[in-house]
Prior knowledge:
heterodimer, A: 364 residues, mainly alpha, Cytochrome Bc1 Complex, Chain C, two-stranded antiparallel ribbon, globular, B: 150 residues, Rieske Iron-sulfur Protein, 2 domains, four-stranded antiparallel β-sheet, 32% strand
Amino acid sequence: MAVSETRHGKLRTWLDQRIGLADLEKLARKKQVPVHRHGLWYYFGGMTLFLFVVQVATGILLLLYYRPSAEEAYESIQFLMAEVEFGWLIRSIHAWSANLMILALFVHLFSVLLLKAYRPPREVTWLSGMALLGVALAFEFTGYLLPWNELAYFATKVSTETTGAIPLVGRFLLRLLRGGDEVTGATLTRFYGIHVAVLPALVTLALGLHLYLVHKHGMSVPPGVEREDAPRFMPFVPNFLLRDVVGWLSAVAILAALAAFLPAELGKKADPFAPAPVGIKPEWYFVFMFQTLKYLPGHILGIEGEIVGVVGFGLGGVLLLLTPFLDRRAVRGEPSPLFTLIGIALIVYVLALTYLGYTASPTK
Amino acid sequence: MDQTLEGLTTRRGFVNWLLGTSAGAFLLSVLYPVGRYLVPPKVGESTAAAVTLAIKPDDVRPNTGLVFKFGSRPAILVRSPTGELRAFSAVCTHLNCTVQYRPDLSHIWCACHNGHFDLNGQNIAGPPPRPLDGFVVNTRGNQIVVSKSA
């Protein structure tokens, strides 16, 4: 006792007796990260988390000026961008960090998919990760409407309308989502509530579970590496954490540069009685779905094309969600080239359709 | 001994059943109103059967179109290259975007997913599955009146 007091000081001892600092320290010291040639991919989960923290911080700041109504939303952001000191910076970082977060999340998702990190006992980790993907996309989707500008208005109109294409419950879900039959101020307040209250609550639950499981099972070693020989390890604190910090600081630098050189735009205020603007596009991570919908004909085998598209994407999502239970070979620890191939095909499809979405002429 | 145990189990079972149903009923009494609360109330469909536009017939040049408000939804008025006035619902039958008139193509076009409609409202290219709803256009003196077809 006396030794520890002289070593750590009185405050530390006082805290340790009350909240168990030594236990936490032991926990942190115990955590090890495998070192091997695919180690780079381990950083993208932490990167996603860091960018999420940036979102929370800048989001809270934006709340202080934002007014969630069809009459005031656009004007309040105009005021924020033009009058409030550094308002442009906070909003631009929020917008850019949202994009980079989704990017980091997708890299994380696909690296986990290709390195088969979903193998037992990490199925629930995968499921909680997929839940976080859903929540993240819901964050982007609801946040996109909040500036109440022309692009956001029509993007929301289209994407909520696709909900209506879901068989049986579509119409009901559509009304529930929009807060009425059309995209109006009621939709805006609804999305605002979901964005700042419902989703943060869901993220807390899913992220808590995800992090707990990552801690419980440790980092997954890819099967290929596992078959060769047992990998070396590095301590999480401080070795891995410091490498994480290097990545996070780089992300801050990139965010600052993007916000300064390409600040978030506001565009024209939404007008429900104006035609959809030429070249309208959703955010880049929805572009592959958007472009697919463009290519589908009006009717496929007697069913409306949009229904085929929406149901198809839904099925794709369910298959991705169930990957840990479908990939039986990986469960047995054998190589499963089919799933690697599907993963790569998925990446190629998303990249190709996204490319077309940006290069194909919007008016042809 | 056995009898006491049995009595206790049934009594315990009864209490558990009571607790279970009460908890269920409580949950239901919370979830039902919340569920109903989340569903937005039905607002009566706009009953507008006709609108008089704020523009004179002569101001709509041939080969142009304009979007106007018909009840609570957008509609489009088109003057064809041959000078005929026509009106349709401006809500694309694909995914609800608002369509516009393309003078370079001389027909109606939706920017969202590249849907094309001819000047009868027929879907002629792209993903739209159905034609646009048509309206009746009447010019009364210096006024344009658009009404729902009977």
